[in-house]
Amino acid sequence: xxxxxxxxxxxxxxxxxxxxxxxxxxxxxxxxxxxxxxxxxxxxxxxxxxxxxxxxxxxxxxxxxxxxxxxxxxxxxxxxxxxxxxxxxxxxxxxxxxxxxxxxxxxxxxxxxxxxxxxxxxxxxxxxxxxxxxxxxxxxxxxxxxxxxxxxxxxxxxxxxxxxxxxxxxxxxxxxxxxxxxxxxxxxxxxxxxxxxxxxxxxxxxxxxxxxxxxxxxxxxxxxxxxxxxxxxxxxxxxxxxxxxxxxxxxxxxxxxxxxxxxxxxxxxxxxxxxxxxxxxxxxxxxxxxxxxxxxxxxxxxxxxxxxxxxxxxxxxxxxxxxxxxxxxxxxxxxxxxxxxxxxxxxxxxxxxxxxxxxxxxxxxxxxxxxxxxxxxxxxxxxx
Amino acid sequence: xxxxxxxxxxxxxxxxxxxxxxxxxxxxxxxxxxxxxxxxxxxxxxxxxxxxxxxxxxxxxxxxxxxxxxxxxxxxxxxxxxxxxxxxxxxxxxxxxxxxxxxxxxxxxxxxxxxxxxxxxxxxxxxxxxxxxxxxxxxxxxxxxxxxxxxxxxxxxxxxxxxxxxxxxxxxxxxxxxxxxxxxxxxxxxxxxxxxxxxxxxxxxxxxxxxxxxxxxxxxxxxxxxxxxxxxxxxxxxxxxxxxxxxxxxxxxxxxxxxxxxxxxxxxxxxxxxxxxxxxxxxxxxxxxxxxxxxxxxx
Lengths: 384, 299
What we know:
By secondary structure, chain A is an alpha/beta fold. Chain A has 15 helices and 13 strands. Chain B is an alpha+beta fold. Chain B has 3 domains: 1-125, Sufe protein. Chain: A, CATH 3.90.1010.10; 126-219, Orthogonal Bundle (Arc Repressor Mutant, subunit A), CATH 1.10.10.1100; 223-296, 2-Layer Sandwich (GMP Synthetase, Chain A, domain 3), CATH 3.30.300. Chain B contains 13 helices and 8 strands. The interface between A and B is large, with 33 and 39 residues.
């Protein structure tokens, strides 16, 4: 059976070019870039090259790029460093719709004496700039707000929000794990101090992330050890994956225009097709400010896990914010923050597309999804 | 993805007896939209008290749909009194087992069956015991009676079991202490002293951890407070060293161990150890905490 992969906000297919770029570092070039001998040392230039490729995607400087093991480590590091370098400040500003990498980290610091403000969202999932401005105080240590939301795809006004923090002398971090490669982020213009990305969301394998740290921003390592990464992160460099991330960023830059046009058009086609053929469904989030490949659709009166399993039978991969798939017995915190009614929240299904998806795949989904929804609705005791 | 048995998958994808029943004379409804699953069970019971027909409508995940469906198969042809003997464990067994986290789906089936038969008998929708029971989990509307029943019928011994079978404690978690007490008492009643003791031990351990956190928050310094105090004290120390052409740099604070680097004249000074302990450590001990330890880190 063919696999139609519409779950690219969860993880992505490794680009063949990325695999190819990585392979020599598993077979021939397995040396340690820190070694004095030529055999090991020659690897360092590939790490440097990758650093340049990553920097280039964001119009940053290579020395501002710190390689980490994943987006979660990048997020933890950013918060840790901000708190350690400004021990006199005790307040963190974030949002109620962040990824757990930030939510749980903020909650940890809250248990350790910090105050945390979690900005709410409206029913479209958008933040309120006035609420944000009011949350910033002289005691605010760091603001951490995601560039784009993983569940509904909303893109937040990060350039504006970072500017507002900068005016007040407050550090600004953004989790750009979902936005990287899909939204044009020019760090020469957007005044964020730190930015996290993850490799496996941009067609690189799992196990590599990056934290951008603007030149001049004070930094304290989260992982202590050797002198690697200019003393900012101990641990021997994960050379093959760093090389892979460099390649993935280069490809992301080359394909950004395609993401914003062809992939966005595919998403629109899928969404319009579902809305036209399935009664009583609605789009969660803000279609006017959204990632190009993401749509989150709620089907009234049915449950998301059942939808996913039926789609799975058709080879369609998607994900859901329903309680039964979250492992927590409660629907997603993002949909709850948006006050999505229960009759919609439990069936919210996320389709996230990428440059490898095709029109045929979208049309296959549009053809088969209405029957899946009808089957489950016929089983449901709720008909209104 | 859940690891469902083939039978669960079959009953989910091709459910038997799905849909409403127009001539039903017994209807049982449990669950709600807010809870994330709900089941409406229809029965047609004849004058001899035999269930002639059964059908269902379910809002929920694959295991909820499969549990409802197989239950209808099980009860058709059964006498009401025998049907009442069906437990949630029987439903799960008929499906070749359910993932632990999904056992509450089988509980929902059993509850709907009970509700339908009460409806046929003309009894109120809520069982007598539940009416009198005390509401424990407010998020999922679970009473102590429901919890005790689940413990008895499924030989549950842990807190996680209770959440998996009844959902109680699965959302905000504020009732977990109360559930622990119910579980411990029930296990003692069953003569399972060891299991009860282990529950009690867990509770005591959690209380100890919570108390330690509370003490940290009110009593001793938190790491952050300690860090702030050390930084402030360093500002008192540095001018003294700078007067001699030296200086000190704070490198790290880990618990009560403060690592510093002596720079300038202090770095190579033969009396550096004296500086370290008699000046820096003694000032930190006065200003911050009496058991601070200062360690030197070489440049």
